[in-house]
Amino acid sequence: MTRGQRNHNPLNIRLSKGTRWLGQCTRQYDREFVQFQSDLFGFRAAFRIMRTYIRLHHLHTLRLIIYRWAPPEDGNNTETYLATVSERSRVPAGKQLTFEDEDELIEIVAAMALVESRMADIDRELLRKAYRLAM
Fold first, then answer.
1. Helices 102-117 and 124-134, packing angle to 10 deg
2. Measured between alpha carbons, how far is 16 from 32 in angstroms, rounded to an integer?
3. H helix intervals, 13-60
4. Residues 62 and 56 sit within 8 Å (Cβ to Cβ)
């Protein structure tokens, strides 16, 4: 079981002072990453961040999102991450994205969960529910 699976945080969202997520466990035993009560809340948080990236920071392509999420200066192989997410989600790296494209974002987050936490075959209804909770 990966750290992301154990923490119900499939995209490995880091703890941030002053940020309290819906569904975040009251006691946090992991000093780096948020621990959620269930995968539903971990995925909801991921969709909230995606919404912020697209709407507030104007990161309208998969390339811009991945380079912000997993920057090379943090030791990530960002190009490989991007290629994997693009291939798995079937979303080209330079395609213009909107948060309203539910199906596309669900596939992107599912692909990111595979890269981050080795989670494959995620129930798309769970992701759909998490996406809608993020609205």
1. 110
2. 9
3. 39-55
4. no
